[in-house]
Design brief:
- The chain is α+β, with helices and mostly antiparallel strands.
- The chain folds into three domains: 16-118, Acyl-CoA dehydrogenase/oxidase, N-terminal domain (Butyryl-Coa Dehydrogenase, subunit A, domain 1, Orthogonal Bundle); 121-214, Butyryl-CoA Dehydrogenase, subunit A, domain 2 (Beta Barrel); 224-382, Butyryl-CoA Dehydrogenase, subunit A, domain 3.
- Helices cover 50% and strands 11% of the residues.
- The chain has helices at residues 16-33, 38-46, 65-78, 80-99, 102-115, 224-255, 271-304, 310-342, 355-363, 369-382; strands at residues 119-122, 131-134, 140-146, 157-163, 170-176, 182-184, 201-208, 213-214.
- The strands form two sheets. A four-stranded mixed β-sheet has the order 1-4-5-8, covered by helices on one side. Strands 2-3-7-6 form a four-stranded antiparallel β-sheet, with no helix packed on it.
- Helix 6 (224-255) runs antiparallel to helix 7, helix 6 packs antiparallel against helix 9 (355-363) and helix 8 (310-342) packs antiparallel against helix 9 (355-363).
- The longest helix has 34 residues, at 271-304.
- The two termini are 33 Å apart.
Protein backbone atom coordinates (compact mmCIF):
# COMPACT_ATOMS: atom_id res chain seq x y z
CA UNK A 1 0.00 0.00 0.00
CA UNK A 2 1.57 3.24 -1.11
CA UNK A 3 2.01 6.30 1.07
CA UNK A 4 -0.85 8.78 0.63
CA UNK A 5 -0.10 12.48 0.47
CA UNK A 6 -1.49 14.33 3.46
CA UNK A 7 -4.00 17.19 2.97
CA UNK A 8 -3.03 20.82 3.46
CA UNK A 9 -2.49 22.20 6.96
CA UNK A 10 -5.80 22.48 8.81
CA UNK A 11 -7.32 25.72 10.01
CA UNK A 12 -8.41 26.12 13.65
CA UNK A 13 -11.12 23.62 14.60
CA UNK A 14 -14.77 24.61 14.86
CA UNK A 15 -17.40 23.01 17.03
CA UNK A 16 -20.65 21.86 15.44
CA UNK A 17 -22.65 24.93 16.45
CA UNK A 18 -20.09 27.31 14.98
CA UNK A 19 -19.81 25.13 11.88
CA UNK A 20 -23.56 25.25 11.27
CA UNK A 21 -23.61 29.02 11.67
CA UNK A 22 -20.74 29.45 9.22
CA UNK A 23 -22.30 27.15 6.63
CA UNK A 24 -25.69 28.85 6.92
CA UNK A 25 -24.13 32.26 6.31
CA UNK A 26 -22.78 31.28 2.89
CA UNK A 27 -25.20 28.53 1.81
CA UNK A 28 -27.32 30.63 -0.56
CA UNK A 29 -24.35 32.20 -2.31
CA UNK A 30 -22.53 28.91 -2.69
CA UNK A 31 -25.67 27.30 -4.05
CA UNK A 32 -25.84 29.96 -6.77
CA UNK A 33 -22.15 29.66 -7.63
CA UNK A 34 -21.73 25.88 -7.40
CA UNK A 35 -18.17 24.62 -7.63
CA UNK A 36 -16.02 23.01 -4.98
CA UNK A 37 -16.44 24.02 -1.33
CA UNK A 38 -12.82 23.44 -0.26
CA UNK A 39 -12.93 25.95 2.60
CA UNK A 40 -16.16 24.58 4.01
CA UNK A 41 -14.94 21.00 3.73
CA UNK A 42 -11.90 22.03 5.75
CA UNK A 43 -14.22 23.41 8.42
CA UNK A 44 -16.03 20.07 8.58
CA UNK A 45 -12.71 18.27 9.00
CA UNK A 46 -11.65 20.76 11.68
CA UNK A 47 -14.85 20.03 13.59
CA UNK A 48 -13.72 16.40 13.86
CA UNK A 49 -16.61 14.98 11.85
CA UNK A 50 -14.64 12.90 9.35
CA UNK A 51 -13.93 10.16 11.88
CA UNK A 52 -17.46 9.73 13.25
CA UNK A 53 -17.86 6.30 11.63
CA UNK A 54 -14.32 5.05 12.34
CA UNK A 55 -14.35 2.47 15.16
CA UNK A 56 -12.63 3.50 18.38
CA UNK A 57 -10.10 0.69 18.08
CA UNK A 58 -8.62 2.61 15.15
CA UNK A 59 -8.73 6.01 16.84
CA UNK A 60 -12.09 7.19 15.54
CA UNK A 61 -15.16 8.46 17.37
CA UNK A 62 -16.98 5.14 17.00
CA UNK A 63 -20.29 7.02 17.02
CA UNK A 64 -23.59 5.14 16.79
CA UNK A 65 -25.68 5.54 13.67
CA UNK A 66 -28.33 7.50 15.53
CA UNK A 67 -25.71 10.09 16.44
CA UNK A 68 -24.14 10.15 12.97
CA UNK A 69 -27.50 10.68 11.30
CA UNK A 70 -28.37 13.41 13.77
CA UNK A 71 -25.25 15.29 12.65
CA UNK A 72 -26.16 14.72 8.99
CA UNK A 73 -29.67 16.07 9.58
CA UNK A 74 -28.30 19.16 11.28
CA UNK A 75 -25.89 19.79 8.40
CA UNK A 76 -28.58 19.16 5.77
CA UNK A 77 -30.82 21.66 7.51
CA UNK A 78 -28.38 24.42 6.48
CA UNK A 79 -26.44 22.83 3.59
CA UNK A 80 -27.58 19.51 2.15
CA UNK A 81 -24.72 19.31 -0.36
CA UNK A 82 -22.06 19.27 2.34
CA UNK A 83 -24.18 16.94 4.47
CA UNK A 84 -24.14 14.63 1.44
CA UNK A 85 -20.34 14.78 1.31
CA UNK A 86 -19.97 13.93 4.99
CA UNK A 87 -22.55 11.16 4.75
CA UNK A 88 -20.80 9.57 1.80
CA UNK A 89 -17.40 9.79 3.49
CA UNK A 90 -18.92 7.87 6.42
CA UNK A 91 -20.34 5.38 3.92
CA UNK A 92 -16.97 4.67 2.30
CA UNK A 93 -15.40 4.26 5.72
CA UNK A 94 -18.07 1.68 6.52
CA UNK A 95 -17.30 -0.05 3.22
CA UNK A 96 -13.71 -0.53 4.42
CA UNK A 97 -14.93 -1.62 7.82
CA UNK A 98 -17.23 -4.41 6.56
CA UNK A 99 -15.47 -5.40 3.32
CA UNK A 100 -11.83 -5.07 4.34
CA UNK A 101 -9.61 -7.79 5.78
CA UNK A 102 -7.86 -7.08 9.12
CA UNK A 103 -4.82 -5.51 7.45
CA UNK A 104 -6.93 -3.31 5.18
CA UNK A 105 -9.13 -2.18 8.05
CA UNK A 106 -6.12 -1.22 10.15
CA UNK A 107 -4.39 0.63 7.30
CA UNK A 108 -7.32 2.58 5.89
CA UNK A 109 -9.31 3.25 9.04
CA UNK A 110 -6.26 4.46 10.96
CA UNK A 111 -5.25 6.46 7.91
CA UNK A 112 -8.65 8.14 7.87
CA UNK A 113 -8.04 9.36 11.41
CA UNK A 114 -4.37 10.27 11.08
CA UNK A 115 -4.65 12.05 7.73
CA UNK A 116 -8.27 13.22 7.93
CA UNK A 117 -9.07 11.79 4.51
CA UNK A 118 -12.13 12.77 2.55
CA UNK A 119 -13.42 9.70 0.69
CA UNK A 120 -14.83 9.73 -2.82
CA UNK A 121 -17.43 7.28 -4.09
CA UNK A 122 -17.06 5.49 -7.43
CA UNK A 123 -19.09 2.45 -6.36
CA UNK A 124 -22.06 1.66 -8.58
CA UNK A 125 -22.10 -1.96 -9.80
CA UNK A 126 -24.89 -1.11 -12.28
CA UNK A 127 -22.48 1.15 -14.16
CA UNK A 128 -20.30 -1.35 -16.02
CA UNK A 129 -18.36 1.14 -18.14
CA UNK A 130 -15.33 0.75 -15.87
CA UNK A 131 -13.60 -2.52 -16.75
CA UNK A 132 -11.27 -4.45 -14.45
CA UNK A 133 -8.63 -6.64 -16.12
CA UNK A 134 -6.91 -9.17 -13.86
CA UNK A 135 -3.13 -8.86 -13.78
CA UNK A 136 -2.51 -12.42 -12.63
CA UNK A 137 -1.13 -11.53 -9.21
CA UNK A 138 -4.45 -10.77 -7.54
CA UNK A 139 -4.52 -7.16 -8.73
CA UNK A 140 -6.25 -5.40 -11.62
CA UNK A 141 -5.93 -2.69 -14.24
CA UNK A 142 -8.90 -0.30 -14.48
CA UNK A 143 -10.00 1.31 -17.74
CA UNK A 144 -13.17 3.27 -18.42
CA UNK A 145 -15.40 5.76 -16.68
CA UNK A 146 -17.76 6.12 -13.74
CA UNK A 147 -20.52 8.69 -13.31
CA UNK A 148 -22.22 10.24 -10.27
CA UNK A 149 -19.01 9.90 -8.25
CA UNK A 150 -19.99 11.91 -5.21
CA UNK A 151 -17.18 13.44 -3.20
CA UNK A 152 -14.36 12.52 -5.56
CA UNK A 153 -13.22 16.06 -6.28
CA UNK A 154 -10.99 17.17 -3.42
CA UNK A 155 -10.85 13.67 -1.91
CA UNK A 156 -7.70 11.83 -0.95
CA UNK A 157 -9.09 8.30 -1.31
CA UNK A 158 -11.92 6.61 -3.18
CA UNK A 159 -13.70 3.30 -3.26
CA UNK A 160 -14.33 1.86 -6.71
CA UNK A 161 -16.40 -0.85 -8.33
CA UNK A 162 -15.51 -2.16 -11.79
CA UNK A 163 -16.83 -4.84 -14.12
CA UNK A 164 -14.76 -7.98 -14.63
CA UNK A 165 -15.79 -9.20 -18.12
CA UNK A 166 -14.28 -12.66 -17.50
CA UNK A 167 -16.25 -13.48 -14.35
CA UNK A 168 -19.15 -11.12 -15.04
CA UNK A 169 -18.94 -9.96 -11.43
CA UNK A 170 -18.05 -6.60 -9.90
CA UNK A 171 -14.60 -5.94 -8.48
CA UNK A 172 -14.33 -3.63 -5.47
CA UNK A 173 -11.18 -1.76 -4.54
CA UNK A 174 -9.78 1.28 -2.78
CA UNK A 175 -7.30 3.61 -4.50
CA UNK A 176 -5.77 7.04 -3.87
CA UNK A 177 -7.66 9.67 -5.85
CA UNK A 178 -4.45 11.13 -7.26
CA UNK A 179 -3.07 7.82 -8.55
CA UNK A 180 -1.64 7.99 -12.07
CA UNK A 181 -4.31 7.39 -14.70
CA UNK A 182 -7.23 8.75 -12.64
CA UNK A 183 -8.88 11.98 -13.82
CA UNK A 184 -11.68 13.58 -11.80
CA UNK A 185 -13.83 15.72 -14.09
CA UNK A 186 -15.59 18.93 -13.11
CA UNK A 187 -18.75 18.11 -15.06
CA UNK A 188 -21.39 18.12 -12.31
CA UNK A 189 -23.96 20.82 -13.21
CA UNK A 190 -27.42 19.88 -11.87
CA UNK A 191 -30.26 22.11 -10.68
CA UNK A 192 -29.54 21.18 -7.05
CA UNK A 193 -26.98 19.55 -4.76
CA UNK A 194 -24.48 21.62 -6.69
CA UNK A 195 -21.51 21.25 -4.32
CA UNK A 196 -21.47 17.49 -3.88
CA UNK A 197 -18.46 17.06 -6.19
CA UNK A 198 -20.41 14.37 -8.03
CA UNK A 199 -18.81 14.54 -11.45
CA UNK A 200 -17.48 11.69 -13.52
CA UNK A 201 -14.12 9.98 -13.12
CA UNK A 202 -12.09 8.36 -15.90
CA UNK A 203 -9.51 5.62 -15.46
CA UNK A 204 -6.70 4.80 -17.91
CA UNK A 205 -4.56 1.76 -17.06
CA UNK A 206 -4.96 2.42 -13.35
CA UNK A 207 -3.10 -0.13 -11.29
CA UNK A 208 -4.88 -1.77 -8.37
CA UNK A 209 -2.54 -3.76 -6.13
CA UNK A 210 -3.70 -7.09 -4.66
CA UNK A 211 -3.88 -5.63 -1.16
CA UNK A 212 -6.19 -2.86 -2.44
CA UNK A 213 -8.85 -5.29 -3.64
CA UNK A 214 -11.85 -5.60 -1.33
CA UNK A 215 -13.91 -8.76 -0.94
CA UNK A 216 -17.59 -8.13 -0.26
CA UNK A 217 -18.83 -10.84 2.15
CA UNK A 218 -22.25 -12.34 1.50
CA UNK A 219 -23.55 -11.93 5.05
CA UNK A 220 -26.48 -10.03 6.57
CA UNK A 221 -24.03 -7.90 8.55
CA UNK A 222 -21.99 -6.84 5.50
CA UNK A 223 -25.20 -6.07 3.59
CA UNK A 224 -26.09 -3.46 6.21
CA UNK A 225 -23.83 -1.19 4.16
CA UNK A 226 -26.72 -0.75 1.70
CA UNK A 227 -29.11 0.29 4.47
CA UNK A 228 -26.53 2.68 5.90
CA UNK A 229 -26.44 4.32 2.47
CA UNK A 230 -30.22 4.54 2.26
CA UNK A 231 -30.44 6.08 5.71
CA UNK A 232 -27.85 8.71 4.74
CA UNK A 233 -30.25 9.78 1.99
CA UNK A 234 -33.26 9.58 4.31
CA UNK A 235 -31.70 11.92 6.84
CA UNK A 236 -30.63 14.33 4.11
CA UNK A 237 -34.29 14.53 3.09
CA UNK A 238 -35.38 15.11 6.68
CA UNK A 239 -32.82 17.89 7.07
CA UNK A 240 -34.02 19.52 3.84
CA UNK A 241 -37.62 19.49 5.07
CA UNK A 242 -36.55 20.98 8.40
CA UNK A 243 -34.38 23.58 6.69
CA UNK A 244 -37.19 24.66 4.38
CA UNK A 245 -39.49 25.03 7.39
CA UNK A 246 -36.85 27.08 9.24
CA UNK A 247 -36.38 29.35 6.22
CA UNK A 248 -40.12 29.84 5.75
CA UNK A 249 -40.63 30.69 9.40
CA UNK A 250 -37.79 33.21 9.43
CA UNK A 251 -39.01 34.86 6.23
CA UNK A 252 -42.60 35.23 7.42
CA UNK A 253 -41.54 36.73 10.75
CA UNK A 254 -39.25 39.23 9.03
CA UNK A 255 -41.04 40.02 5.79
CA UNK A 256 -44.54 38.53 5.96
CA UNK A 257 -47.58 40.68 5.20
CA UNK A 258 -51.16 39.74 6.02
CA UNK A 259 -53.47 39.14 3.08
CA UNK A 260 -56.06 41.91 2.57
CA UNK A 261 -58.99 39.57 3.34
CA UNK A 262 -57.42 38.02 6.43
CA UNK A 263 -58.76 40.54 8.94
CA UNK A 264 -55.52 40.44 10.95
CA UNK A 265 -52.79 43.04 11.37
CA UNK A 266 -49.77 40.74 11.03
CA UNK A 267 -49.04 37.71 8.90
CA UNK A 268 -48.26 35.44 11.84
CA UNK A 269 -51.92 35.72 12.95
CA UNK A 270 -53.35 34.66 9.58
CA UNK A 271 -55.36 31.46 10.26
CA UNK A 272 -54.63 29.99 6.84
CA UNK A 273 -50.92 30.64 7.24
CA UNK A 274 -51.00 29.04 10.68
CA UNK A 275 -52.73 26.04 9.11
CA UNK A 276 -50.08 25.81 6.41
CA UNK A 277 -47.23 25.93 8.93
CA UNK A 278 -48.95 23.26 10.97
CA UNK A 279 -49.05 20.95 7.96
CA UNK A 280 -45.41 21.61 7.11
CA UNK A 281 -44.36 20.99 10.70
CA UNK A 282 -46.29 17.71 10.88
CA UNK A 283 -44.56 16.47 7.73
CA UNK A 284 -41.11 17.39 9.02
CA UNK A 285 -41.52 15.88 12.49
CA UNK A 286 -43.13 12.72 11.09
CA UNK A 287 -40.18 12.25 8.75
CA UNK A 288 -37.72 12.78 11.59
CA UNK A 289 -39.53 10.36 13.88
CA UNK A 290 -39.41 7.57 11.32
CA UNK A 291 -35.77 8.35 10.50
CA UNK A 292 -34.82 8.10 14.18
CA UNK A 293 -36.79 4.85 14.48
CA UNK A 294 -34.92 3.41 11.50
CA UNK A 295 -31.55 4.56 12.87
CA UNK A 296 -32.27 2.91 16.21
CA UNK A 297 -33.12 -0.35 14.43
CA UNK A 298 -29.89 -0.09 12.46
CA UNK A 299 -27.89 0.50 15.63
CA UNK A 300 -29.34 -2.63 17.20
CA UNK A 301 -28.54 -4.72 14.12
CA UNK A 302 -25.04 -3.22 13.80
CA UNK A 303 -24.17 -4.18 17.36
CA UNK A 304 -24.97 -7.83 16.58
CA UNK A 305 -22.09 -7.97 14.09
CA UNK A 306 -21.53 -11.27 12.35
CA UNK A 307 -24.24 -12.92 14.43
CA UNK A 308 -26.89 -10.80 12.71
CA UNK A 309 -29.62 -12.94 11.17
CA UNK A 310 -31.25 -12.37 7.79
CA UNK A 311 -34.71 -11.84 9.28
CA UNK A 312 -33.50 -9.07 11.58
CA UNK A 313 -31.67 -7.43 8.69
CA UNK A 314 -34.87 -7.59 6.58
CA UNK A 315 -36.85 -5.81 9.28
CA UNK A 316 -34.26 -3.01 9.32
CA UNK A 317 -34.69 -2.78 5.53
CA UNK A 318 -38.45 -2.41 6.01
CA UNK A 319 -38.27 0.43 8.53
CA UNK A 320 -35.59 2.09 6.38
CA UNK A 321 -37.95 2.08 3.40
CA UNK A 322 -40.84 3.37 5.49
CA UNK A 323 -38.71 6.26 6.71
CA UNK A 324 -37.31 7.06 3.29
CA UNK A 325 -40.73 7.25 1.63
CA UNK A 326 -42.02 9.73 4.20
CA UNK A 327 -38.80 11.78 4.20
CA UNK A 328 -38.72 11.86 0.39
CA UNK A 329 -42.22 13.31 0.25
CA UNK A 330 -41.64 15.69 3.13
CA UNK A 331 -38.53 17.22 1.54
CA UNK A 332 -40.33 17.89 -1.73
CA UNK A 333 -43.62 19.04 -0.22
CA UNK A 334 -42.21 21.37 2.43
CA UNK A 335 -39.75 22.81 -0.08
CA UNK A 336 -42.66 23.69 -2.35
CA UNK A 337 -45.07 24.84 0.38
CA UNK A 338 -42.41 27.28 1.56
CA UNK A 339 -43.45 29.57 -1.31
CA UNK A 340 -47.16 29.26 -0.58
CA UNK A 341 -46.32 30.37 2.95
CA UNK A 342 -43.95 33.18 2.03
CA UNK A 343 -45.54 34.63 -1.09
CA UNK A 344 -44.32 36.08 -4.36
CA UNK A 345 -41.51 38.22 -2.96
CA UNK A 346 -39.84 35.08 -1.61
CA UNK A 347 -39.04 34.07 -5.20
CA UNK A 348 -36.41 36.86 -5.36
CA UNK A 349 -33.52 34.90 -6.88
CA UNK A 350 -30.71 36.13 -4.56
CA UNK A 351 -32.58 34.63 -1.56
CA UNK A 352 -32.16 31.17 -3.12
CA UNK A 353 -35.12 29.87 -1.13
CA UNK A 354 -35.79 27.49 -3.98
CA UNK A 355 -32.60 25.60 -3.11
CA UNK A 356 -34.42 23.39 -0.61
CA UNK A 357 -36.81 22.07 -3.25
CA UNK A 358 -34.12 21.89 -5.95
CA UNK A 359 -31.75 19.97 -3.69
CA UNK A 360 -34.54 17.61 -2.68
CA UNK A 361 -35.65 17.11 -6.26
CA UNK A 362 -32.15 16.11 -7.38
CA UNK A 363 -31.44 13.85 -4.42
CA UNK A 364 -34.82 12.10 -4.33
CA UNK A 365 -34.14 10.79 -7.84
CA UNK A 366 -31.36 8.56 -6.49
CA UNK A 367 -33.62 5.50 -6.80
CA UNK A 368 -37.33 5.23 -7.73
CA UNK A 369 -39.81 5.83 -4.93
CA UNK A 370 -42.36 3.48 -6.51
CA UNK A 371 -40.28 0.37 -5.89
CA UNK A 372 -39.74 1.33 -2.27
CA UNK A 373 -43.49 1.82 -1.76
CA UNK A 374 -43.95 -1.57 -3.46
CA UNK A 375 -41.70 -3.22 -0.87
CA UNK A 376 -43.64 -1.62 1.97
CA UNK A 377 -46.94 -2.61 0.32
CA UNK A 378 -45.86 -6.24 0.01
CA UNK A 379 -45.24 -6.31 3.73
CA UNK A 380 -48.44 -4.44 4.59
CA UNK A 381 -50.59 -6.78 2.50
CA UNK A 382 -48.81 -10.13 2.66
CA UNK A 383 -46.24 -9.85 5.45
CA UNK A 384 -43.37 -10.24 2.96
CA UNK A 385 -40.14 -8.61 4.13
CA UNK A 386 -37.80 -6.90 1.61
CA UNK A 387 -35.10 -8.97 -0.04
CA UNK A 388 -31.46 -7.87 -0.13
CA UNK A 389 -30.63 -5.81 -3.23
CA UNK A 390 -28.39 -2.93 -4.26
CA UNK A 391 -30.97 -0.53 -2.82
CA UNK A 392 -32.70 -2.44 0.00
Amino acid sequence: MEQIREPQQAQPARDLTALLQALRASAAQRDREGGHAAREKQWIADAGLLTLAVPREFGGAGAGWSDIYDVIRQLARVDSALAHLLGFTCLQIVSLDVWGNPQQRAHYLRGSVEHRWWWGNAVNPLDTRLVATATGDGGYLLDGQKGFCSGTRGSQMMTVSAHDPVTGKPVFAVVPTERAGIAVHDDWNPIGQRQTDSGSVSFVRVRVAPDEVLVRPDTPYASLRTLISQQVLTNLFVGLAQGALDAARAYVHEHGRPWIASGVSQATDDPYLIQRFGEMHIQAVSAEALAVRAANALDEAWRQGMSLEAGTRARVALVTSEAKVVAHRAALDVGEKLFDACGARATHAPLALDRFWRNARVHTLHDPLDYRVRDVGRYALNGTLPEVSLYT
